[in-house]
Amino acid sequence: MYDAADRFDGAFALFVSADGNAQDELEDIVRTVRGRRAQMMVNGRPMLSAYALGGLEGARAQSLLERAQRLGVYFVPHLFPHTGEREIDANAAADIVERIGPADGYFYFGAAGAPSLLARSTRALATALRDAGKAFMAPVTPYYRGLPQGTNYRAFETDGFAGMAEEWRAAIESRATWVQIVTWNDWAESTYVAPTGGARQAAVYHARFGPILSHEGYLRASRHYIRWFKTGSPPPVLHDELFYFYRLFPAASACAPPRMPQGTLLDRIFVCVLLAHPAQLTVRQDGRADHRLLPAGISFVDVPSLPGQPRFTIVRNGRIVLDRTGELAITERDFSSRYGYYSGWASGAPSR
Description:
CATH topology of the largest domain: TIM Barrel
Distance between the termini: 40 Å
CATH class of the largest domain: Alpha Beta
Radius of gyration: 22 Å
CATH architecture of the largest domain: Alpha-Beta Barrel
Strand content: 25-35%
Number of strands: 19
Structural class: alpha+beta
């Protein structure tokens, strides 16, 4: 990966996040990446991160923090707070600042939680870390749903992209140093945003993960917020875009097996719309049509989910400017997607 990134002539930077047994190899990691053209440098030092520093209980965290300090890296690790996956309030954030000691910052690996909880935790951490003069790498995540054959079969409703947008706003408004999308390709917990090459793939990487539905809509909708985060100002919407998110099976249906995941899920179709000028959104499905007059800018809309392929149109001044039918049908029988979200999108020409 470093070899590929080197070819971007410094325009693309990488850093290693050590997980599990890789934390025993910090010296080798630093020796390998130090001096690479694509290595991310902060204050003249190679950036290094970690997940679950010192293990789930953090038993070895202190010795690893001291080792990273001796290696001369810019260290921004994650370690599990004493609150576990509960909300990180001001007291928990202060405890984290104390525990990371000599580290240069903290990475909050926030994925298993409701968007509002993750956003509030981000804001609390940002304040505590900034007051301590430390960097903060905040999370944004699309949607978490564990697999029924695992130990973490639970789901956290995100209302399509609205939850991820709330997390982006928390990172932007709290002035986090960096944002990490959690995750790129965790197929087991459905937090992936990596393009998979189609609306639905029978298998990606391993068949045990089951059919993989595209989450690329989350990634593409994030572009607006990425620009906002980088520039510090909300970018103008110069062309019409819509992003749609829905499950392929009614969430309220009783299916055994598998059992229902922990968490309340909604039978709704969710749409995020970016408009250069006011227009009307219509969602059509199974003889039903829902119309919404929307202003310029960003809007979030949801309508009941019905069997069939939903169709999305945007009309302005009597003219259809966007027209897209969801690639995958909503059914009452096919449960193979296991409460996963499908996401798609459509884009219009730049506004004149």
